[in-house]
Design brief:
Layout lengths: L1 H41 L1 H37 L6 H23 L2 H8 L6 H13 L1 H16 L3 H24 L9 H25 L2 H4 L10 H33 L3 H18 L1 H18 L3 H28 L1 H9 L4 H38 L2 H26 L4 H25 L14
Length: about 450
């Protein structure tokens, strides 16, 4: 009876942490879904322009996003080790990292025109792509702040503020997106520009709510927030050493997928639009799995802070059960009725375009259904490794996968030899399947248990 009770307590604890994080990751997916749907209604060209521009902006911000997410992992180990007085200093180093990241991204935005000329998409799309990319990168500091605070609050058990803030911001952002794209409720019609501006405004509102809560909640005193503002060089270096590896993982995953979309974009507007539709649908359905992954990472961090590796492994196993309860039905829907999802994007297109995009997107979703079953393994196990501090291994594995299993084969087969986009998507699926085997072997070796992020002497 005692074991059964603990089993259900474990599931409850995972869900308690995961649900707000699912809302947070799902929030991004839902915003992207509505944004792309509104743009598809606005014009086919707007959708074709924004998706690769958004992917490139995500690639540029992904390094910094990965760095700031991992600050939360470091916090979770100190929280598990009951070193709460040291957490404020860690958070402030993350804030200074956010400021530095924002400055770098503003500099990157100055090269937007050069970047999109090098990519070589349809000339009619380039002005929209440049405009969108510039706005998103210049305002990215707000989304980075949101990422930092979301990761921080989740790591110290403040799940409710994460969930409430994200849900509130989601409604505001979707409303602004609709108004600013189409010019509704007194707003000027701005199309692609409105899409980018609404994203930045929504992120700024979210970050502001998180900051206000920090200033007026018990967290300020409990974690010594106000007395730890200075830059601590040794602590900054320690955080940067580990979080940079996570940033590289985010960056390589993002750039691999971005290059993949950009290569497909050279096949034509319809092919790019069809892939974009499939990507946006899969993101909405699948990004909540990242919420489970973040929860596992935080829980493993707490367990390793307590030096309880067996508890960490127990939570990983139960995390798999919860993830697959969600993933398997989704994959069945993608395989059996992909048209149900695609139709929401193509219903306003001309008949010929609608049929082409419907057919190609539906076929791609079937490939997505296959690799999603294995991607769930990748996300859960890499989240476990990151929570334990074994992030350098994840970085090396990601470099290998993206360069040798994904980028080079896609470049040769799709770009050089002119094979179809289905070959490209097949390579993408095989890469994910191969890495699920690599990560499973690493997990069973138990080498990840030897890592630690707690360095009390630095603070």
């Amino acid at each position: 009876m005692g074991k059964d009770k603990r089993k259900w307590q474990d599931y409850t604890y995972i869900l308690q942490i995961a649900i707000p994080l699912i809302l947070a990751t799902g929030y991004l997916a839902i915003l992207e879904f509505f944004d792309r749907m509104f743009l598809a209604w606005y014009s086919k060209e707007a959708l074709a322009a924004v998706t690769p521009a958004s992917a490139l902006a995500l690639t540029c911000t992904s390094l910094f996003t990965g760095i700031l997410v991992y600050v939360g992992n470091i916090v979770s180990q100190y929280y598990g080790a009951k070193m709460e007085e040291k957490i404020g200093s860690i958070l402030w180093q993350g804030i200074w990292l956010t400021v530095l990241s924002g400055v770098i991204l503003v500099i990157i935005s100055c090269f937007s025109e050069m970047l999109f000329k090098m990519i070589g998409h349809d000339g009619a799309l380039q002005p929209m792509q440049i405009l969108y990319f510039e706005i998103i990168t210049k305002g990215a500091v707000f989304s980075l702040l949101t990422t930092l605070f979301m990761s921080f609050y989740a790591s110290v058990g403040k799940y409710v503020i994460v969930g409430v803030t994200i849900v509130s911001s989601m409604f505001i952002n979707v409303f602004l997106d609709y108004c600013m794209i189409f010019g509704k409720f007194g707003f000027k019609e701005m199309g692609v520009k409105g899409s980018a501006l609404s994203t930045i405004i929504g992120s700024a509102i979210t970050a502001l709510i998180f900051i206000i809560y920090l200033l007026f909640s018990k967290c300020r005193k409990r974690f010594h927030i106000t007395s730890a503002k200075r830059i601590d060089i040794k602590l900054f270096q320690h955080i940067f050493k580990y979080s940079l590896s996570n940033g590289v993982v985010f960056f390589l995953d993002s750039i691999g997928f971005t290059l993949f979309l950009l290569l497909i974009g050279r096949a034509g507007v319809n092919e790019l639009a069809a892939s974009n539709v499939a990507v946006n649908i899969s993101n909405v359905i699948f990004l909540p799995v990242f919420g489970f992954g973040m929860a596992i990472s935080i829980i493993v961090g707490e367990c390793m802070g307590k030096k309880d590796a067996e508890a960490a492994k127990r939570y990983v196993r139960k995390g798999f059960c919860l993830v697959y309860l969600y993933v398997i039905p989704v994959c069945l829907l993608f395989w059996c009725v992909p048209e149900l999802f695609v139709n929401m994007f193509v219903r306003n297109l001309a008949t010929g375009q609608r049929e082409t995009i419907m057919s190609v997107s539906s076929d791609i979703l079937k490939i997505v259904a296959i690799y999603t079953l294995f991607d769930a393994i990748d996300i859960n196990l890499t989240s476990c490794f990151k929570g334990a501090g074994d992030v350098v291994y994840v970085m090396y594995a990601t470099v290998f996968a993206n360069v040798f299993l994904l980028m080079l084969p896609v470049y040769v087969l799709v770009l050089r030899l002119g094979m179809s986009i289905y070959v490209g998507w097949g390579i993408f699926a095989l890469t994910i399947i191969a890495m699920s085997l690599v990560y499973t072997m690493r997990y069973k070796s138990c080498k990840w248990q030897k890592a630690t992020l707690v360095k009390p002497e630095l603070i």
